[in-house]
Amino acid sequence: MSKRIAKRVLLIGWDAADWKVINPLMDQGLMPTLENIVNRGVIGNLATLDPPLSPMLWTSISTGKLADKHGILGFVEPDPDHQAIRPSLITSRKVKAVWNIFSQSGLKSNVVGWWPSHPAEPINGAVVSNFYQKTNDYYGQPWPLAPNAIFPKELEEKLADLRVHSAEITAAHLLPFVPQAQKEYIESFQKLYSAISRVLAHAASIHNAATYLERNTEWDFMGVYHDAIDHFCHAFMKFHPPQRK
Questions:
Q1: Helix 228-236, helix 190-216: angle, nearest 10
Q2: Can you tell me the distance from the alpha carbon of 2 to that of 110, in angstroms, rounded to the nearest whole number?
Q3: What pTM was computed for the model?
Q4: Cβ–Cβ under 8 Å, residues 164 and 205
């Protein structure tokens, strides 16, 4: 364990994180933890690829290959069994991801929420797929994990208990993001607050799974993907000044 701790690498992916938004927030003292990390490290701008489709881009990050080589071409793909479309699955990836290469070298990896990573592939370590945090519509009803969302299977029961349902998000959880999130506002803008609750519940579920694996398993590499910023941007960037016509 001591050797692994000395050489471990943690990769956290924040989809849609933009220094143009982050730097002003740090300057205002609103992101002290991230500012502390930045002040003790190095920051830089990342180039992207076209088209900027998240499943394609994050697979390029994990494989070092362009889409024509790695095989993940967008958000959806043909379903060969039902003559329809389905979410892009990891089974369509044609090349090794970095955690596959590490596994072949005897190194342990944890992968949480990477897009796409379902069904969870067998590696030397643990995988929590991007289907893990998906909820049903009604709180209090059975909420089984998506089949093959976790590898190895002995982690399923524990990690299933760590998921957060959007109905568990309260006004207190919303306040850091929407200071006026009092009862009357929530009732008036139910659709918007439901969207925020869903995004926060998904983020909390991924965080819970990642921190559990970080603390309770041996690992050399860990990759964690968060899409909350991306979802917030799609839903609410139109309210961020300056307004564009």
A1: 170
A2: 17
A3: 0.90
A4: yes
